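Suppose a classmate hands you a notebook page containing two proteins, each written out with its sequence and a corresponding row of structure tokens. How would you begin to make sense of it? This section walks through that situation. The first entry is reproduced here exactly as it would appear on such a page.
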Amino acid sequence: MTTDPVCGMYVDEKSSTLAIEREGKKYYFCSANCKLQFEKPEKELRNLRITLMVSWPLTIVVAILTYILHLGFGNYLMLVLASIVQFYAGQRFYAGMADAIKNKSANMDTLIAIGTSAAWTYSAVVTVFPSVFPAGGIYFDTSTIIISLILTGTYIQRLAESRASTAVSALIALQPKIAHKIEGDKVVDTSIEQIKEGDILLIKPGEKIPTDSVVLGGESSVDESMITGESMPLTVRAGNKVIGGTINFTSSLRAKVTKVGEDTTLAQIIKIVKDAASSKVPIQKLADKVSSYFVPIVVLVGIFASLSWYLFGGVGVNTAILIFVSVLIIACPCALGIATPAALLVSSGRAAKAGILVKSGESLQRASKVTAVVLDKTGTLTKGKPEVTDIVAASGYDKMEVLRLAAIAEMNSEHVIGKAIISNAQSMNIKGEFPKKFTYTQGSGVTVLTKSGKKITVGNRDLFDSAQFSGLEAKLQELESDGKTTLIIGEGEKAIGLIAIADALKGDSKKAIDSFKNAGYSVWLATGDNQKVANAVAKSLGIEHVIFQVKPKDKLDKIADLQREGNVVAMIGDGVNDAPALTKADVGIAIGAGTEIAIQAGGIILIKGSVYDAFVALQLGKRTMSKIRQNLFWAFGYNIVLIPIAAGALIPVFSISMYNLLPMLAALAMAFSSVTVVSNSLLLTRFKVQ
């Protein structure tokens, strides 16, 4: 058995005649209405609007004829008007019931069709053949008001759902339609569907970047906020990657296409958000199971209550029929079917807006139960590349002069540490100068001769006598104890300063760790770095549990140990070596800027690469599950409270006259329950972590 993605009812895929395939996945439906809502929600909304424009005016006239104007031919006029409502406005319920019978199942349309048909049939017989039921009494108002109210509730629900899915619509709207393709000396406007990998594009200022590409020439500012959530524009130049759908601000760029179609970042985001919105979570299994048995049980309860009161309670046929109708209408499990999907849809859209992609609803449910968090270091808590963190100048020297001389020495270097020094010097607007002579000593450092004949040495202790840097020894040991790679800078035969290099922490790493700890999570650092580096990072962030020099299997084993201790574990990482641990963890959270294999292994993806967003994702999981529980409470609550009332529990208190209004109140309650569930789910759009 599978479930209808619209209403959540069970459908037997073997016998179902209503199915469509979309993006490689097959969906089955309990009724044509649900299928139409899934395929063309805008058409379903328009059809509902037209139907309501017919049903409500006729319903109001029937109500006036019933309660205000008592005309001699009123019953026949009401029969005509009520028949239009019953079989035109209500035809969707009959179609839904027919589909359910074909699929050997029962759905909410079954309840509505049977209940309103009972009221209409009884009233029609009384009108045309009054001698059949001497007690008289007609209930055209009941059937018409029930149908109109339920359709109104469905319409409001569809409107709310269209609001909830605006995140996906906004993402789709980001996709540009035209690209400027460079062909030799010409620039040709080409449909985005015709662009292929390897094509060279011209991206003009103010335009959206057509697809994922790498910059070949030009320098500009790019607004990536709609994809990554980063508020500040990003400066890009040759070699930098740009994301399709983001906006080029200041200057023209030439870029080579790297991804097209479904492989692009934006397409993957859209797919993930859609999948998360339609996915099932374990808590929904209860609702699905109840729904599959609910309809036939309720029909039996209605029949039993009706016959019992008629045979043993002394009520007439009119009241017995009303009892049956009331039970069926009150029991419609519309809210039960949408309790979970509504919350997941809103939640996944809210997460996407914050730069967090949730691959499945199950990931959100597990996130709500996490007790322990294991974090990788490089690329997760740190930026993933070495940076200059400290510059120390010996007595009589200036820090900028130390950096300038180090940059001259490293000008020809291809080593990542040398590049870090050059990058830092450029950021300080220090002009570069190529040395006259360059000598590299493997594993130790470099010695160069400047054009003016000055000797500069940059390296570790091996290139210097201890006497040369004795005045810097204490600071050197301090920096090394912090796990930083520290270089000694020498001019001539004297050490003039130190430059420390490290994989710098991301700006929000400390905030993230503090948030995890304050929320009661057990926090672990698992890194392949040595003990000194691992402990230094852990100390700076306030992480108490550290494992170092770990291989991929070691991370996986640690997660297994924590799980055996009863923890629900979230793993946060970005590298290939994190993929096994991301898969093993109850919740795998992948840094979006990391490797593709890590992203595929993670259940939650952090597009901005911010580790604090992992905390946001866990809190959103808790809030979402809270909303789902509230929704299920409302859905079950209406049924549990009102079914006994509909079955006659209050007749001894309010007499049989209560049934004059109960069917209408039942329809109102059923419609209101669905609106309550959707409205409650929409509150997730206001979710914020304090």
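The notebook's second entry, a different protein, reads as follows.
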Amino acid sequence: MADETPADEAKPVQRPLIMRYAARSDVGRIRAKNDDSAYVGRHLAVVADGMGGHAGGDVASAATVLDMLHLDHGDYDGDAVTVLADEIQTANSLLSELVHINPKLAGMGTTVTSLLLAEGKLHIAHIGDSRAYRLRDGVFEQVSVDHTFVQRLIDEGRLRPDEAETHPHKNVLMRVLGDVDASPELDLDTMDVKPGERWLLCSDGLNYVAGHVVERTVRETKDLRECVETLVDLTLEAGAPDNVTVVMVEIVEETPDDVSTAAVDVVPPAPVTETETADTKVETAAAADSEGEAPPVPEPAAGKPDAGDQATSTDPHLGEHLSAEVLRQELSSRPHELVGAAATAAESGSIPTIAGRTVARRAATVLTHKADAPASEEDEILEPAKLRRWVTWSIAASVLLVLTVGLWLGYAWTQTRYYIGEFDSRVAIYNGVSQRLGPIQLSTLEAVTQIRMDSLPQFSQQRVRQTVPARDLYDAQRIVKNLEGTGTIAPADECLNASSTATTPPTAGATPTAPAPSPDASTPAAAPTPTASTSPTAVCGVGQ
């Protein structure tokens, strides 16, 4: 037994693996806003490159990254890759819900390239054209495969890799998260990992730096922070026509210092005001959620609503507020870096999420269903009166909730409509309907055209001032085009059909007769005299 003890003591203790990391995102030199988002912590790294132009590329990437950050832990019981894939599919459904709520976001999407370090394995999930590179045992290689049109041509042998960068369709994506596919296909893999290997995650904005320069920078720059700074600076020097986001990760063994800084205790402040007390409960919910446990919340008695229900029903933005508070607390509970559009959303509180998501729902439960205090004798005497008040308040809250939901749905419907009207003596496109609901204007100015009102015929001016309804934005643009080309709201072919069936109006008192045949077949018939009935055709033909 004594001989075995030194051997046991000499056996090295295998420590858990974690990530060391650095991240940076830049809008570039051409784009007006940053559509990239990234998060990296000790177990999770995610890069998302949003698309959709001004409509919602930043919303798509931020919503996806913020929806995944709670995965940043290492305890998955051997099911990490499935959890990672399911979470990305959930983020995809979130984007569809956001588009359903706000149709202006239609067409937005995002790429996702993510690493999850759990139980000594590295799990990879990828879709789109963001990339993952690995430097291991001196070999630098691209692990992810671009889901682009040109990559498909390369795989089929129809295009050489050196021709891809100049191909006119190099940015066409074949797979992406968004509102197009309800269940997009992900590339999933689980790989062995060992201390010392490095990973580079990046958006396609880094593609403007030559591949051998990227490889040399990753190999030779030992400090991770310096590495990401250098790669982004190189992109900016190359012109940076796109947003660029770079995340560097190095796999290391966890140290005692890492353990001591990983656990951040959430200490509730002293109860000063009712508002601060509510915030403390939200923070407590977030801390419990970050540890993978639901906070201990007593279930409310059946048929006995709580006072907090009133606040929940009357505040239409409660879910957003809770999401912002819980997200900030979630982020403060662990070491991490958050960059790009997701960082902007977290700082401003404009979290692109759906009220009722898991974290917000847990916080709302804690906030609205409070523990019952011990009842005194006076409370027992007043119980019947309190019960009647609860019933009254619950009925009032239910009515108010129905009215609020009805008004919100009505308003949401108006925002799917468009119409043509006048603004500053010019033809303009409005989003909404031209009515008011008390002090609330139900329309907003969408665009002002260059068509002056005094350049239109009198009847068209009158129609525009009375507003011309449109089915959608495309229909509104069609009407504007008709006004610009023909001076009417109808397309030219409709005017042509109408004018072709019109006849010359008879002179007052005259009897219309059929034209007499020519006495001499060789004598040409007299040319018809143009009349006022042909003028609409001439007007409609303008610009065709």
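A careful reader of the second entry would note: The radius of gyration is 33 Å.
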